[in-house]
Amino acid sequence: MQERNVLSGMLATWLTAFFDAIEPVKWFLLAALCLILADAKFGVEAAKKRGERIRKSRAIRRTINKMIDYICWIFVANSLGAAFGTPFGIPILPAIVLFVIYGCEINSCFNNYFEARGTKLRINIFKWIKSKAPIIEPEENTGQNLEDKK
Fold first, then answer.
1. How much of the chain is helix, strand and coil, in % rounded to 5?
2. 111 — phi, psi (to 5°)?
3. Average of pLDDT values for 116-123?
4. Count of CA atoms in the C-beta half-sphere (13 A) of 65
5. pLDDT score recorded for residue 142
6. What angle do CA 95, 19, 86 make, to 5 degrees?
7. Is 19's pLDDT higher than 50?
8. Whole-angstrom Cα distance, residue 6 to residue 102?
9. Under 8 Å between Cβ of 127 and 133
10. In the chain, where are the structural domains located?
11. Distance set, CA 92 to CA 27, 67, 82, 84, 95 (Å)
12. Which parts of 18-132 are beta strand (E)?
């Protein structure tokens, strides 16, 4: 009986520490989940548009791998914030790190969305941030596309 109480107390202590560490980034977890699901949906639509065969097992595996990657990135950003952000007075360091990571996913979502709809647009939000340039660019025409129009 006493052993069970000790184990329960240790588990409660560990879970409390874990949830205290997760608290500042809980909204980033939700954002990651939304971005991953949107990218999976638009990725499947784009693959169908390209005529690729969709295998559910591969799609599920890639989605779960992406979820694990994002959880790791969130922990890395949280750790960087604790190690460097707090001592140097940069409280938004985890948000900056995650914005870069999420920016790649946002680009992927938009590009898959436009490809699935048959639009030849490419999105790059980093160009807009870097130079305030337009983020939507039409894909460059190749010689093959020019022949198709004739």
1. 80, 5, 20
2. -65, -40
3. 85
4. 6
5. 52
6. 40
7. yes
8. 41
9. yes
10. 2-149
11. 14, 23, 11, 11, 5
12. 121-123
3/24 Cα distance (integer angstroms): 33
- Rounded-to-10 torsion of CA 81, 87, 90, 92: 30
Binning pLDDT at 50, 70 and 90, where does residue 141 land?
low
Report CA-CA distances (Å) from 10 to 2, 17, 21, 22. Answer: 12, 11, 17, 18
Q: Could you tell me the CA-to-CA distances from 72 to 32, 66, 120, 129 in Å, in that order?
A: 11, 10, 33, 25
| Least confident stretch, 53-57, 125-129, 132-136 | 132-136
Q: Supply 6's token pair.
A: 């000790």
In this structure, are residues 33 and 67 in contact, taking their beta carbons and an 8 Å threshold? yes
Question: What pLDDT, in 10s, does the model give residues 29-88?
Answer: 899 999 999 999 999 999 999 999 989 999 899 999 999 999 899 889 988 888 988 888
